[in-house]
Design goal:
Strand content: under 5%
Shape: globular
Number of strands: 0
Helix content: over 70%
Low-confidence stretches: 449-473, 479-485
CATH superfamily of the largest domain: MFS general substrate transporter like domains
Number of helices: 18
Number of domains: 2
CATH topology of the largest domain: Growth Hormone, Chain: A
Largest sheet: none
Structural class: mainly alpha
Order of helices and strands: HHHHHHHHHHHHHHHHHH
Mean pLDDT: 80
Radius of gyration: 27 Å
Length: about 475
Amino acid sequence: MSFWDKVEPDVKRSLRASERDGFFWAVMAGFGENFVQPFAIFLRATNLQIAALASVPQLVSALLLPHIGGLTDRLRMRKRIVLTAVVLQAWMWLPILVLPALMGARAVPLLVLLYTIYLILARFSAPAWISWMGDLVPESVRGEYFGHRNLIIQLTTVCSTLVAGSLLGLFEERSELLGFGLLFVVAFLARMASAGFLRQVQEPAYVHQQQDDFTLRQFVGRLPSTTYGRFVIFNCLLRLATAFSAPFFALYMLHDLGLGYGSYTLVIASSTFAKVFTMQQWGRIGDRFGNRRVLGVTALLIPVVPMLWLLSTKVWWLVLIELFAGLAWGGYDLAGANFLFDAVRPAKRVRVFAFHETLHGICLFLGAMAGGLVSTRVPQLSFAVSPLQTIFLLSGLLRLLAVGMLLHTVKEVRVIAGQQRLPLPLVIAEPMEDILYGAFHGMRHGAKLVTERGVHGMRRGFYSVDRIYHQAAEDMRRSFRGKKA
């Protein structure tokens, strides 16, 4: 029986419209968002400017999110907020295309500014959309529906990215600017189409009470003591470690490896391609065994991803890496989104999501800017072809540190039935998680013992050596006297 059979007809119509909205959003992402960094590289952006493009929009939009969440609570018109932001976001693609091309040396800073406004509008709609869809989608099919919807989105993103990369490749030898222009016009039209389908999605009544209000400071203060709060801490630190290297993969491929747009597109589309074939299965596993288990499995895979970039520069190897990355991040992102629905009451979801994204955006900024600064000073590994590969290695180690120290603190909140037969990856991952937790905490405990006892032990050692030395000298004197007598 399909999960659609469990959904009422009027809700089903809305969910179908939401799928179509997701389809056109994916077209926009494939033609637009996936080629913003290549556009910056075409405009001759430096390493630090690439890091700023990846981080400054995240920071500014994140700092505005707490106010956006409060606006949703006051207006109680989630649909209108989302539609307004989506239409304005669509129109941003036109100045992103035109203005940097006219500004010469100031093109990249202007691109950062325009993309910041674009991302602010995207973030403006996100809390209201999360709350809206959380109320609309029945809990019994939530994992399968979002897995199905994400399947459509990821498949469309793959196809759109491949088509966009092919089109851009045709203009590579003639006019790359014209090629980027064509891509961004398609992104504009696709986002306008998605707004049309959003209008067809019904909005359940929004129930909000004054006692559900809380401030960002209160939210941060409660993080260590709540289930979702501990997930927020873990997720933000994992994202910070990821952002340390994330802005530089496009630069590494296009500049250091000299890949054409066709090969670059094939690599970045591979990650999305993997999500297409795993997202729905991750949703089913989350519904049956709990989203916490999916988080545990995928979080163990994520630190491996950047380290694999050190092993080869062949395009086929980069494609395999991105397929693996899509498997890991697809499950992690889906389980993380569903974990919000499991752990947070509907009335608090807008603010919780907004505050989580605020902390998330700050961590993305810190991680990307730290990576940008380090990338200008880091030594190149002896076997590497680029200093950026050192950044990839450091990012993997930082991710591993976050997983080892904090994943163990995140607990399941749902009551899950039928857990007696776990899939093999879950059976393997749970002991691995315990091993990592034990290893990192053992190292921390050992370091504490060394700190507390090290000086004392060295002092005792020197005293012992001193005693042995004096005893040996005394024995030698006695021996000498005996021989002399």
